[in-house]
Amino acid sequence: MTVYNFSAGPAVLPKPVMEQIQKELPSLQGSGMSILEISHRTKRFEDILDTTKQDLKELLQIPDNYEVLFCQGGGTGQFAAVPLNLANHHRKIALLDSGHWASGAADEANRLGYTVDIVGNTKANKYQSLPYPDQKLSGDQYDYLYATLNNTIEGTTYHRDILPEHNDITLVGDMSSNFMAERYNVNDFGLIFAGAQKNLAPAGLTIVIVRKDLIHPAAHTPKMLNYEPYVKKDSMFNTPPVFPIYVAGLVTKWLKDLGGVDEMEKINRKKAAVLYDYLDESKMFKNHVAKAERSLTNITFSTGSDDLDAQFVEFATQNGLMSVKGHRSVGGLRASLYNAMPIEGAKALVDCLHQFEQTH
Amino acid sequence: MTVYNFSAGPAVLPKPVMEQIQKELPSLQGSGMSILEISHRTKRFEDILDTTKQDLKELLQIPDNYEVLFCQGGGTGQFAAVPLNLANHHRKIALLDSGHWASGAADEANRLGYTVDIVGNTKANKYQSLPYPDQKLSGDQYDYLYATLNNTIEGTTYHRDILPEHNDITLVGDMSSNFMAERYNVNDFGLIFAGAQKNLAPAGLTIVIVRKDLIHPAAHTPKMLNYEPYVKKDSMFNTPPVFPIYVAGLVTKWLKDLGGVDEMEKINRKKAAVLYDYLDESKMFKNHVAKAERSLTNITFSTGSDDLDAQFVEFATQNGLMSVKGHRSVGGLRASLYNAMPIEGAKALVDCLHQFEQTH
Q1: Is B22–A22 a contact, with Cβ atoms under 8 angstroms apart?
Q2: Strands (E), A92-213
Q3: Are A126 and A330 in contact (CB under 8 A)?
Q4: Mean pLDDT for each consecutive 10-residue tract of chain B (360 residues)?
Q5: CA B204/CA B187 separation, integer angstroms
Q6: Which residues on B lie below 8 Å from A18 (Cβ)?
Q7: Lower CB density within 10 Å: C or N end of chain A?
Q8: How many Å lie between the alpha carbon of A310 and the closest alpha carbon of chain B?
Q9: Across the interface, do B204 and A243 touch by the CB < 8 Å criterion?
């Protein structure tokens, strides 16, 4: 039985990447040493890090006035690092509450003593649509406007053409769950961050893309959360997460060979359409997000009955379709269709949904 | 040619562990999913984390009044986390300056606004011996006494029988480079931390062992550096470094099968003796550390000539003995003999040293 893993993250890696990791695990590039064992101070690893960074710049069309940092600590680490590094003028942040992770970012900034103004929220409709600022925002008032670009749990996305207005304010985007899955213009942002464990590498690596003029010495900020030492030492002031960086290098190469982010987005749109088209026709399973705001990578749906949803999870698991249960905070069902998920996975899921619908 | 990797870290993993990783990479325990891809919220991974924690408790004889936390961020992360969590009464730390990493810990605590008193240092003899407090220390004065137990760069170790006196003060130990390599009594410490990339797992995981009464809500501390959420959520309030935790589980199992930490220490003493015995007899290569303070895991030596040292590095590399160059801050030569280095590696190095000595 072919197993498809619809987990929201850590998530599937491309099959050729998995094969290459396995093949060269005992001896990296004929060195006689494993990637799990080599020193980060070797020329071999420095080349891997440099190439991965260059490939990210190329794939995401990152302009020269941005830095690319390889960090640890995931989104939770950046919920602290972003205000600690960027909110140094007003100590005041405008934030769009689009659900679970946006709210987590607000909590962490609050804990650290920053003022967080929720300038838009869609709590009233259970975050099934995206919030937008209820006022014109300015950098004279706030250090930045914070948005969770893709809401993994709620299934909504600020795609590039429906970003919140940011003419007079720095926009910060959490791109953890749709990084390299669809095109964004990096110029729209002062800072983008992304945990690697959805579209880039196994858990343990976080990418930060930050405009150079926003990097300042962040006094009293722990070094691990302070962007300046990463810039000064090319993300190597201490031992970086060597293995995830190596895998990120293989995944970026795979994506380049496949045609880059624009080609990936086309594939992702087709893949998501397989599932959304079914859901829009189904009498049993529904998705409640407006079409323009639908996520390509995390598709939420439900029968409306907790019991029936649970039965479907069981049925899907028996058919090798894993982790289709919705996040514990919202319930229901969810399928994550990240870059490495083949279209056959989406089709297998639709077949399974169809079969379940006909027999229940 | 057999390649031996004497890197100070990331470092060698046990061969059977490497083989198992490679074998089950595409399908963990027959699940059809890779350890690189499974969700951390699966029962399968929760079992791995629980078992690894239990094995660490057993191997290190960790008493029940201690917590074991799985963190990210390495030693540098803990240089901040330890004062942020533990130095909340006096905001004042006593620290033994035994070299590079102790000094790094002092700098980070200073940056974060804590008072750091260097109560002993051996800078005058280039850290070739261990410092001890020049006064009786008390918890009425300091939140804790901080010591780097094994000095990776300088080749010295506070072994269990030569720890600094700590009757009236909490002792904190950085055990990054001799974790599970020799026996310590956990009861001697309020807190121990260790980066995994020497004796436990690939880079990206940090183990913290902390006495329960020392854990308090650390207000205004970033969540990633705050022990309390790790305790409350069993190190899973966010995505943990899944793969290094999995490898740690394989390594602890390997170490248990081998006979545990006491047996490992016996092997490490034999292994280190192969090299120290040679160095004590050699007319060309010298180690300058007093016998009682010598590290089992990081053995420093030199010809006394930078040029000759560099020639030996070249000669060793040609013979498949990698990364024997000393740390850039002290120069000279260094061989790291971690748990996974077989005694044949130490013997091969001695053969190579001998051959070089006879021909130069």
Answers
A1: yes
A2: 92-97, 115-121, 144-148, 150-151, 156-157, 171-174, 191-195, 206-211
A3: yes
A4: 91 95 95 93 96 98 98 97 97 98 98 97 96 96 98 98 98 98 98 97 97 92 97 95 98 98 98 98 97 98 97 97 93 97 97 97
A5: 27
A6: 25-26, 34, 36
A7: N
A8: 16
A9: yes
Of A21, A79, A111, the CB nearest to B220: A111
As a whole number of angstroms, the distance between CA B52 and CA B47 comes to 8
DSSP, residue by residue, A308-360: HHHHHHHHHHHTTEE--BPPTTT-SEEEE--TTS-HHHHHHHHHHHHHHHHH-
Q: Rounded to whole angstroms, what are the CA distances from B181 to A175, B163, B298?
A: 41, 16, 11
User: Of A223, A205, A73, nearest to B83 (Cα)?
Assistant: A223
Compute the average pLDDT of residues A80-102.
97
Q: Which residue in the set A5, A113, A223 is minimally distant from B80, CB to CB?
A: A223
CA distances from A319 to A272, A352, B121 (A): 20, 8, 64
* B10 interface with A at CB cutoff 8 Å: yes
- d(C-alpha B23, C-alpha B19), whole Å: 6
Can you give the C-alpha Rg of chain A in angstroms?
Answer: 21
Buried b (16+ CB within 10 A) or exposed e, A20-49: ebbebbbebeebebbbbbbbbbbeebeebb
Quick check: A223 and B247 CB within 8 A?
no
Residue B42 contacts A, CB cutoff 8 Å: yes
| Residue B79 near residue B191 (C-beta atoms within 8 A) | no
What pLDDT, in 10s, does the model give residues A115-127? 999 999 999 999 9
Q: From the CB of residue B294, how many other CB atoms can be counted at a distance below 10 Å? A: 19
Interface of A with B in 262-301 (CB under 8 A): none
Which residues have CB under 8 Å from A42's CB, separation 6+?
Answer: B323
| Rounded CA separation B108/A22 (Å) | 39
φ, ψ of residue B156 to 5 degrees: the values are: -115, 155
B75/A238 touch (CB, cutoff 8 Å), yes or no: yes
Using the structure block, give the residue that is written with the tokens 């809401």: A151
Residues of A with a known catalytic role: 101, 174, 198
ipTM value = 0.96
Q: What is the dihedral of CA A263, A266, A271, A272, to 10 degrees?
A: 130
Predicted local distance difference test score (pLDDT) of residue B134: 87
Sketch out chain A's domains with CATH numbers.
16-258 (3.40.640.10), 260-359 (3.90.1150.10)
Chain A residue numbers with beta carbons less than 8 Å from the beta carbon of B40 are 10, 203
Residue of B85, B200, B239 to mutate, interface with A, max A Cβ within 10 Å: B239
Nearest to B112 among A195, A222, A240 (CB): A222
When scoring B46, B84, B224 by the number of chain A Cβ atoms within 10 A, the one with the most, hence best to mutate, is B224
